[in-house]
């Protein structure tokens, strides 16, 4: 009787993990780490970073918008698990919020 329960608990599927979703998650994670490094550098230098850091920050902000688009595009894929697309989308939105919030705060303050 016990073996019958176990045999029925397996579920075979053809689903795979989305490669674009994994790429969006990885890209978002790297951009979030990039943001944390830049915030640390800004605090250490008391806000006196050069313009090169600002250009790199603008590039990272644009890349975070691209990551949102890439992660949103993976939701339409059929026969794939939704873990990485969802995780990539949430991390991408967090990146956009952090980068845009920092720039708005910089202009206001």
Protein model, in words:
With 109 residues, the protein is mainly alpha-helical. Helices cover 75% and strands 4% of the residues. It contains four helices and two strands; from the N terminus they run H-E-H-H-E-H. A two-stranded parallel ribbon has the order 1-2. Helix 3 packs antiparallel against helix 4. The chain starts with a helix and ends with a helix.
What descriptors fit this protein?
about 110 residues, about 5% strand, elongated, 4 helices, two-stranded parallel sheet, mainly alpha
Secondary-structure element string: HEHHEH
> What ranges have pLDDT less than 50 throughout 5 or more consecutive residues?
none
Structural class per helix/strand content? mainly alpha
How many helices does DSSP assign? 4
The largest sheet has its strands arranged as 1-2
Distance between the termini: 69 Å
Mean pLDDT: 85
Radius of gyration: 20 Å
User: Per DSSP, what share of the residues sits in E-state strands of 2 or more residues?
Assistant: under 5%
Largest sheet: 2 strands, parallel
Shape annotation: elongated
Q: Percent range for helical residues?
A: over 70%
Give the tally of β-strands.
Answer: 2
Kindly summarize this structure in a few lines:
The chain has 109 residues and is mainly α.
Give the helix/strand layout:
Elements: H1 2-8, E1 16-17, H2 19-44, H3 51-73, E2 80-81, H4 83-108
Parallel strand pairs: 1-2
Helix pairs in contact: 2-3, 2-4, 3-4
